[in-house]
Amino acid sequence: MPSLIRTLLAPVVWVANKLGTRREVSRDEAQQAEVDQACETLALYQAWSEPDCIQVRREITRLGLEIETRDVRLDPEHTRALKEEGGKLEVPCLYIHEPQGEARWLYGAQAIIDYLRKRFG
Q1: Its pTM surpasses 0.85
Q2: What is the separation of C-alpha 68 from the centre of its chain, rounded to a whole number of angstroms?
Q3: How far apart are CA 115 and CA 1, in angstroms?
């Protein structure tokens, strides 16, 4: 039953987030280009209506980041990658492709938010 309620309220949550979240970090074009390039090495594994995922997406919006989102409920390939490569099926999870070529999987809303604020805030 909680899943049904979450599903039914998801559009309301989405609208509230879009209307209630605005960009709080401003950068000039060159700085934003650098940030956008850095974000190409990131991907957020998430579920659209999960509260922790919504919290992370709001922070991404506040920081003015363009991070690819991969919904594990909609794409079985993303589910497989998260479970097999990341080690566990838990969202939100930030995939970080390190410059040395290594992959890093960061789990938990607060850990992801802290990482993003430290790197881009």
Answers
A1: no
A2: 7
A3: 34
